[in-house]
Design a protein that fits this description.
- The complex is a heterodimer of chains A (about 190) and B (about 180).
- In chain A, about 75% of the residues lie in helices and about 0% in strands.
- In chain A, helix 6 packs antiparallel against helix 8.
- Chain B has one domain.
- In chain B, helix 2 packs across helix 8.
- Chain B starts with a helix and ends with a helix.
- Classes of the chains: A mainly alpha (about 190), B mainly alpha (about 180).
- At the A-B interface, helix 1, helix 2, helix 5, helix 6 and helix 7 of A face helix 1, helix 2, helix 6, helix 7 and helix 8 of B.
């Protein structure tokens, strides 16, 4: 599915540019996108190093294990395939907490760490496990308490109540997350049958 | 509300204060452990680079060529046939852009908010939508790429289902809460 989407976006984009007489934009966009990819990766290296460094300290101090034990009952409901003392639990909890608090740049390092731990328990390293699918569904639809960027944009545009969208955002992410969890449950059922 | 904002503001400094201190008290060699952990960050960053570039190139070409706008224009009649007002259809480009590109969606959302006003119906919906769903393609590419997964199974469908529900919920709750 990813291969098809990738091909469709690329080829439809090129055809559209060709028909509308703007074929130059293709070259331009492709090169800019490649540069942007490097920029994002470099930024991520900084963020990852910072947070994974801190996480190592928390691990060695026994804090991550404590946190994992605390959140395990809920998390294990969502990830029935994980082992009870899986090292992925701590990283998953840290990732979701960072997401909820709106600490976007801390969420990614913890999330990638969780993926690494999940991959260690994966019998087929090229195919996603059900736990990974669950994790990504939670991750992309996670409840957001503070949509900080949008509040900033609204302030800049002179909104009378820049924060009035907090409630609606919490509701919408709550719905998305619930739908993600239910759909994940159904997909897992359906694949097994 | 302000309580949560304060928590967000203090969370990071407190983490960087408390965790190293506790680790030191438990006899962890704090500086050396930090460096050892940070090393992983570099490896991960490098390993996701090709996946990022591959996905970004395809997405940018699709958006910059105007194909996204054409797709949105195709959807307008469908949505007005479904009984949605013309205000609501102005959200379609944002809804398509949101899972593809974080910065692109932020641009579209900001433009909508500027055009309609932050306290208008469209402005509130755009704010809620932009704040509530994530860049599904980006997250999937980076997360799966970092560990070498090629077959995503149903992960993409899950993400898009959640995005769609987020879209419908954003529109509905703004109508309910403000009108």
């Amino acid at each position: 599915m990813v291969n098809l989407i990738w091909l469709l976006m690329l080829s439809i984009g090129i055809l559209t540019a060709a028909v509308s007489g703007r074929i130059d934009t293709v070259t331009d966009s492709a090169m800019k996108a490649a540069e942007l990819g490097v920029e994002i990766a470099i930024q991520l290296i900084g963020m990852m190093s910072l947070w994974l460094g801190l996480m190592r300290l928390a691990e060695e101090a026994g804090l991550v294990r404590g946190l994992a034990r605390l959140g395990a009952p809920v998390i294990r409901l969502l990830f029935p395939s994980l082992k009870k003392d899986s090292p992925a639990l701590g990283a998953i909890i840290l990732n979701l907490s960072a997401n909820i608090l709106g600490l976007g740049n801390a969420a990614t390092p913890f999330g990638l760490k969780a993926m690494k731990e999940l991959q260690k328990e994966n019998p087929d390293p090229e195919t996603a496990t059900p736990a990974m699918c669950t994790f990504l569904a939670l991750n992309t639809s996670c409840i957001t308490l503070i949509p900080a960027t949008m509040i900033g944009v609204r302030m800049k545009m002179n909104s009378l109540h820049p924060t009035e969208i907090i409630g609606t955002t919490i509701f919408a992410t709550g719905c998305a997350m619930t739908a993600g969890i239910i759909a994940d449950f159904l997909f897992r059922r359906w694949r097994k049958a | 509300m302000s309580v949560i904002a304060e928590i967000s503001r203090w969370a990071i400094p407190m983490l960087f204060f408390v965790i190293p201190l506790l680790a030191y008290l438990r006899r962890v060699p704090v500086y050396e452990s930090f460096v050892a952990g940070a090393e992983d960050g570099f490896k991960t960053g490098v390993s996701i680079l090709p996946f990022l570039i591959g996905m970004l190139v395809s997405i940018r070409v699709f958006i910059d060529s105007g194909a996204l706008e054409i797709l949105a224009r195709f959807l307008y009649p469908l949505f007005s046939w479904l009984g949605l007002s013309s205000d609501l259809t102005s959200l379609i480009p944002l809804a398509i852009m949101r899972p593809l590109s974080g910065s692109g969606a932020l641009g579209v959302a900001s433009q909508l908010i500027e055009q309609y006003g932050p306290d208008s119906m469209v402005g509130r919906m755009a704010s809620t939508l932009q704040g509530s769903t994530d860049t599904t393609f980006f997250v999937l590419t980076v997360y799966f790429g970092s560990v070498g997964i090629r077959k995503y199974r149903y992960a993409l469908k899950l993400g898009l289902i959640a995005d769609f529900v987020g879209l419908v919920a954003s529109v509905w709750i703004v109508l309910k809460a403000f009108y």
